[in-house]
Amino acid sequence: xxxxxxxxxxxxxxxxxxxxxxxxxxxxxxxxxxxxxxxxxxxxxxxxxxxxxxxxxxxxxxxxxxxxxxxxxxxxxxxxxxxxxxxxxxxxxxxxxxxxxxxxxxxxxxxxxxxxxxxxxxxxxxxxxxxxxxxxxxxxxxxxxxxxxxxxxxxxxxxxxxxxxxxxxxxxxxxxxxxxxxxxxxxxxxxxxxxxxxxxxxxxxxxxxxxxxxxxxxxxxxxxxxxxxxxxxxxxxxxxxxxxxxxxxxxxxxxxxxxxxxxxxxxxxxxxxxxxxxxxxxxxxxxxxxxxxxxxxxxxxxxxxxxxxxxxxxxxxxxxxxxxxxxxxxxxxxxxxxxxxxxxxxxxxxxxxxxxxx
Length: 358
Description:
Elements: E1 4-6, E2 13-15, E3 24-25, H1 30-37, E4 51-52, H2 54-68, H3 84-91, H4 97-106, E5 110-114, E6 117-124, E7 127-134, E8 140-144, E9 147-149, H5 164-175, E10 177-179, H6 187-193, E11 200-202, E12 208-214, E13 219-223, E14 229-231, H7 238-258, H8 272-307, H9 313-325, H10 327-332, H11 339-352
Antiparallel strand pairs: 1-2, 3-4, 5-6, 6-7, 7-8, 8-9, 10-14, 11-12, 12-13
Helix pairs in contact: 4-5
Keywords: Coiled coil
Protein name: ZAD domain-containing protein
Organism: Mytilus galloprovincialis (Mediterranean mussel)
């Protein structure tokens, strides 16, 4: 008897081998499935079918031909919804810990039991991506990239674990989700604002709202309120998505500040929105300059303490006399407005003042 399979897209049952064709693997049309239906099959749980039916395959082929011809392409595929109830029926677990461990192995999790506590770990490139830890008192901790995630954020109708079946639901639900990537396409802003450290983003009240953190091979900007997990069909969690316009605005300001030529406009000709934007740009620029000045002051203070030499009054007066007599010669050796030129003039001005507080 010929075996059957369920189509990953429409859910229709079809025979694996017929006289006309072999079953089509969904991976062959992964790109078109993502573009046409916004489904990333790479994130599919293991129990979902690896094949699509002949009808869906032909519809994808026709859709691709229309796209290549720059036609308005439509695709008539009713994608079957995957719900937690469907996942439970597929898992065929008996709601016991033994069944949950078997389910964990099927879903690619690593099980670890120690001192009555059970821990289920999901690895990615030898790194712990996420874990579910349940102790002997059924206290549960969900950790994603070393950050604790609230239990109720994943299972809305549950606030705690009453029995092993809740862990089964939790594991199935997480298997249909993905780790929020944050906003990993704004490294230019991070390096512009914080060249040598991880970036921090604060609001007008100086409260931290987002920060830069390391991922496997890159960095990302994650909000403080990031849910860490999101639906596999979403690009990122809602909190990180809401923060994106802020990052785009900061990138725009960065480009405006870094441009060599700046246009000047009369303030009375500006709209309210333009005036607000100008104030924000000025405030950011002032903060940046203040940070640089404070850093230079600290470096100069440390340098003077370590390498500075204290002079008595007579030697000090001799130095001042030498500086006055040779200032023109010294300044002629440096390019005007160069750092050396400015430093010499400032030192001469400071040395000739009778009161250093002037």
